Structures are given as C-alpha cells and as structure tokens.
Amino acid sequence: MIAIIDYDAGNLRSVEKALASLGEETVITRNFKEILNADKVILPGVGSFGDAMAQLKKYELDKVVHEVAEKETPFLGICLGLQLLFESSEETPGVEGLHLLDGHILRIPEEEGLKIPHIGWNSLDFPNKGRLFEGIAEQSYVYFVHSYYLKAAEESIVTATTEYGTHIHASVEKENIFACQFHPEKSSTMGLQILKNFAKL
What is the end-to-end Cα distance of the chain in Å, rounded? Predict the structure, then answer.
C-alpha cells in the first residue's frame, strides 16, 4: 500500500491515477496510522511553500513525515513536496521547512526570454544515478511546473539535474528519502517508469 499524504495541497488525484495505472494500491489520507503503516509514502503538492507548511502543521503531518523518515519507509516528495523537505524557501522567508535534508529553495533568476514559472519539458542529467532512474536514459525529458528550485547542500544526494536559467537540482536521494522537482505523474512513459521504480523499492 502506498499512502499519498493529503494536506489540501492539490495534485493528489493525478498521482493516485498514475499509480493505479501501474496496478499499485494507494490511499489518499491524513490518518496517522494509515501513513505510518504504509509500505511507501508520497508527499505531492502544488502551491506556496508557506501555505503548505502551515497546512502540514495544522494537521500535525509534519510530525508524521519525520516519523516515516525515522522508520526508513521509502518516501517520495514531488514538486512542492521536494521543496518542503529542505530548510527554507525564498518564496516564504522566515518559514522553516521540514528540514529532513540540507539545502535551500531559491527563486529561478529573471533572464530575458526566460518564462517564469518554468512550465514544460526539460531533459535530465544524472550526476549520481539514483534508484528512481533505473532503466531511464540520460537526457530523457520530464515535465516541470515551478518558479523556485532546489540548491542542495550535499552534491552527493543529487541524482538528477537540469538547466533553466540556472543549474537546478531536479531530484535527490538519501537513504529512504527520494524527491523530484518535476512531476513524474505528468511525464508520460518516463514518469511512469520513475513511479514504478519507487513502487518496487
């Protein structure tokens, strides 16, 4: 069973639908017991960093995420779900993230001819190929929707990068924690392969 954490941050159904197409059993929940008993846990999300942290705290799901990490249950953050795993974001100064991983979320720099938010397909490079990318060729394209990007403190945890006006850490892996800035559930066959790789961990 894969638990998808429900904290009113949208995009849950498309993740559920993608996993269902792979034959995976899922539950969208904010029930502590269901999350802690799940084989794997996913934190999706779209919206602002500050609002999302407020919602997680409102339902006390921030504590559950830390428990999941301590239990070494495979955990996947998607888009905003990746950003929340780090220390802070320029989007909402003064708001602390979950800080399961070291690093900060920065605004994509303004540049002539560069549209922000970054919406569309970008190719990935694999500086340290992680388990999510098994069977996936370098330079494969995935789908992004974001105005802020990750700069991780530890280069060793960065499994995929892309370029969009700056060097973006697009995916990370550390022990049982995985995260993608892009949307695997919207990234066609490549994205489904990524979710499949996560599901079989």
Answer: 12
